[in-house]
Each structure stands twice: as structure tokens, then as C-alpha cells.
Amino acid sequence: MGKIKVTQVKSNIKRPQNQKRTLEALGLTKIGQVVEHEATPNILGMVKKVEHLVSVEEA
């Protein structure tokens, strides 16, 4: 499994609670923040839930 970089590009204001919690679980709290994760099925599923709020690229 490779690594991915996840960047928050949109705000979580006025989003459902589950999307806010997913961003928090990914380690994202601010727009422009970048975190790096292993590309496991769990992480990819979380990214899929908030794909409209983040951008993803391979690290």
C-alpha cells in the first residue's frame, strides 16, 4: 500500500456532523491543511465520504 496526501480545500461549516467527524478523524481541522496517510481501505473509505471537501494525491 502506498501513501496519500489529503488536503482540505473546503470548509466543514454547515456540513452534517458525520462529515465533520470524518475530517477530524483524518486529522484535518483547517482549510489548506495537509496530512499524509497510508492508503488502507479504511482511510480510502473516509476520504470517499468527504471527497467534495478534500483533494487527494499520491505521496
Could you walk me through the main structural features you see in this protein, from its secondary elements to its overall organization?
This protein is α+β, with helices and mostly antiparallel strands and about 60 residues long. It has a single domain, classed as Ribosomal protein L30/L7 (Ribosomal Protein L30, Chain: A, 2-Layer Sandwich). Helices cover about 30% and strands about 25% of the residues. It contains two helices and three strands. The chain has a three-stranded antiparallel sheet, with no helix packed on it. The longest helix is centred in the middle third of the chain and has 10 residues. It is globular, with a radius of gyration of 10 Å. The mean pLDDT is about 95.
Structural descriptors:
about 60 residues; alpha+beta; Ribosomal Protein L30, Chain: A; three-stranded antiparallel beta sheet; 2 helices; about 30% helix
Task: Draw up the topology in text.
Blueprint: E1 3-8, H1 17-26, E2 34-38, H2 41-49, E3 54-58
Antiparallel strand pairs: 1-2, 1-3
Helix pairs in contact: 1-2
In short:
The chain has 59 residues and is of the alpha+beta class. It has two helices and three strands; from the N terminus they run βαβαβ.
Straight-line distance between termini = 11 Å
| pLDDT < 50 runs, ≥5 residues | none
> What share of residues are in beta strands?
25-35%
CATH C-level class = Alpha Beta
Largest sheet strand order: 2-1-3
What is the global morphology?
Answer: globular
H/E topology pattern: EHEHE
Count of distinct strands: 3
The overall pLDDT average reads 97
CATH topology grouping = Ribosomal Protein L30, Chain: A
Annotated CATH architecture: 2-Layer Sandwich
